[in-house]
Every structure is written in structure tokens, then in C-alpha cells.
Amino acid sequence: MTAVRALTAAAATLCLGLSLAPAAQAATPHPTPSAPAPASSENPFRWMDLQGLKAEYRFMCPAGTCVDYWSLVLTEDVAAKHYAGGRFFAYAPASGEFGFFLDTDIAVRTTDSPDGVRLMDSPFTRHNARFEIRYGNPDQPRKARVVATATTWM
Known about the structure:
23% helix, 3 helices, 3-stranded antiparallel sheet, alpha+beta, single chain, globular
């Protein structure tokens, strides 16, 4: 009789545990990865000749949705220079087209800070064989100072 009681208690515990397992799984938040998978994305800028720019791999989880991406940013030595009286902007001199920087998740045409220069892989970067990061007045792009360039040799 003692064996039957022990077996019944064990079976009840097992059934109770199985019925609570889905609720426990639903209540447990899914862990967010702490580091990016090293080969999850290939550098789209690998074929470009970069001067004053570097390709940077980023991984972030805003609002629980994780994304990884490559972007072009100013090199440390170019970013460390003193800039006053203008704005940074991306410009393709051959077409007169302007690019956009990524400010967290918002596209902006210009930025005050060298840290704000962040170009994504976009039609602008793919369709212009050469584009430049300039500093000065975006309304007079040809007079602005060229601080960095990216060239795709075709």
C-alpha cells in the first residue's frame, strides 16, 4: 500500500509539472543575444576604396527587436579634427545627389557632429561610383570641404 501511495504522489507531481510547463515557458522572456553572430552579415562596403571612412559592424536590440548592420563612419583621426561653422553631409559630386545618415533609426540629411556620420548600404552608396563626406554649407555643396571619400572601382 505504501508503494501505491508513493507511486500516486509521484504521478500527481509529474502531471502537475507537465500542466504548468507551458505556462512557465510563456511567462519566461526570450533571452536576447548579447553578442552578434560573427558571420551573420557580409560587409557590403568591402569593394570600396575608403579614405577617412571605415566600415563598422553594429548590433543592437531597440525595443527587443535585434538587428545587425554595416555602416560607414569617419575614422578616428578624421572625427577627432576640429569642425566649426558647418554641417556634415554625404554628396556625390558627379550626380549632385545627397545621401542620408542614420541617427539611431531616423534618416537625416546633415549632422553637426562627426559621430553623427553613419551611412547605411543604400541606393545612394550603391549607385554612385564616388561619394564624399563634406563639411560646410549643404546649400553650397561644391564649396564645402571634403573630409572623406568612398570610391567603387568598376
